[in-house]
Write a sequence for this structure.
């Protein structure tokens, strides 16, 4: 078997991007990202998705080496976001007999992204439709809003392989990351390192669409899946229930771990001091995982991830312009648009003459579903004093009682 072989006749032909700093222009990449693409060799050859514009030349070199002079019959288009779809027009021009297999919504999006009218070269598929390549048979599964409306997935029936589009994706270039024993450059993932960057990817990119992911998991539960091929990150084969269970927890908006996440910001260091005091009290008093993030400096996407990961959250911010310090507003806005819900939240404000941050944070949290605000709401009067410590102790007691 070649190193890039996933199952008989199915090869990975994706490419790594190790120099992109921001994914979607907003998510920090410490270890790059992979744009996965696959090919099935059969009587008719099918290519599964293209890659980002940045990696056009490298991908075409890989593809042509795989094709070895043969002509592909189909391009399966799972998702029209440019990190996967940028090369559709170019590929269709290079292979004039190629047919793009996709949803009706993907056809509409093609006319927005490309100058050429590709609609006459598409084969529109719906839920449950199948396409036989020879020994391989593709079954199409509609997956709208995971994470665009045109998304579909493909289940290859003979090898029990699910091509899962953005679902089960993970940040990290395959050449820079290793899931446990698999080694750098391996296309295979395992349970060792996967969850950290897969969770940051999930909540920031797919998180809003939990209901759609739940619907998808119900459909895929009826399939005998042996291998999952996502559009980013490693291919999953061993311990599949581990990955699927995590997706079930995440998409149901249930906490993955018991623990308290403290998200704070600070103007002159006093709210920061209070945040560290609260973390100390919690760690000394309770046998509970405490995670803390300085929203001014730490990765916002990681803070969003931690808020979803744990069952309890504490937000701590000074008052600023009769509202909260803007970075806290940004954090709560992120949580709101990602459908944050079902959590217990403590609130701590700071104010020197007209404290307003607690009221404003509470208003934003009340706009989210099933959020329980813990009493007492703590108001710091400029600096940490004995009263502040007593109030933080009371808040810690309430959080630990939960
Ligand atoms: Fe990896 Fe939604 O694109």
């Amino acid at each position: 078997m070649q190193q890039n072989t996933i199952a008989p006749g199915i090869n990975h032909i994706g490419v790594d991007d190790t120099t992109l700093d921001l994914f979607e222009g907003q998510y920090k990449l410490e270890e790059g990202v992979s744009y996965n693409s696959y090919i099935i060799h059969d009587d008719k050859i099918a290519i599964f998705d293209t890659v980002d514009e940045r990696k056009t030349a490298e991908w075409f070199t890989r593809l042509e080496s795989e094709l070895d002079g043969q002509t592909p019959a189909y391009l399966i288009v799972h998702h029209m976001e440019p990190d996967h779809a940028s090369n559709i027009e170019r590929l269709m021009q290079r292979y004039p007999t190629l047919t793009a297999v996709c949803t009706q919504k993907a056809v509409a999006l093609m006319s927005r992204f490309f100058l050429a009218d590709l609609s006459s070269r598409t084969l529109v598929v719906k839920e449950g439709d199948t396409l036989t390549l020879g020994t391989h048979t593709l079954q199409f599964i509609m997956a709208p809003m995971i994470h665009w409306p045109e998304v579909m997935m493909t289940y290859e029936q003979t090898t029990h392989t699910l091509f899962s589009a953005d679902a089960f994706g993970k940040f990290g270039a395959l050449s820079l990351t290793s899931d446990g024993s698999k080694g750098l450059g391996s296309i295979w993932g395992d349970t060792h390192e996967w969850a950290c960057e897969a969770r940051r990817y999930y909540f920031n990119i797919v998180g809003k669409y939990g209901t759609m992911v739940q619907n998808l998991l119900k459909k895929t539960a009826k399939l005998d899946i042996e291998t999952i091929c996502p559009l980013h990150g490693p291919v999953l084969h061993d311990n599949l229930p581990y990955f699927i269970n995590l997706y079930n927890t995440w998409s149901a908006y249930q906490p993955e771990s018991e623990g308290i996440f403290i998200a704070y910001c600070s103007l002159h260091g006093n709210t920061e001091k209070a945040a560290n005091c609260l973390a100390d009290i919690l760690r000394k008093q309770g046998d509970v995982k405490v995670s803390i993030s300085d929203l001014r400096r730490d990765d916002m996407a990681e803070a969003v991830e931690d808020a979803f990961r744990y069952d309890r959250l504490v937000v701590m911010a000074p008052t600023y312009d009769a509202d909260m310090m803007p970075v806290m507003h940004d954090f709560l806005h992120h949580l709101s648009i990602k459908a944050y819900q079902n959590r217990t939240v403590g609130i701590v404000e700071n104010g020197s003459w007209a404290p307003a941050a607690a009221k404003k944070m509470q208003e934003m949290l009340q706009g989210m579903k099933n959020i329980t605000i813990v009493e007492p709401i703590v108001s710091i009067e400029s600096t940490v004093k004995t009263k502040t410590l007593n109030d933080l102790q009371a808040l810690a007691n309430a959080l630990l009682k939960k």
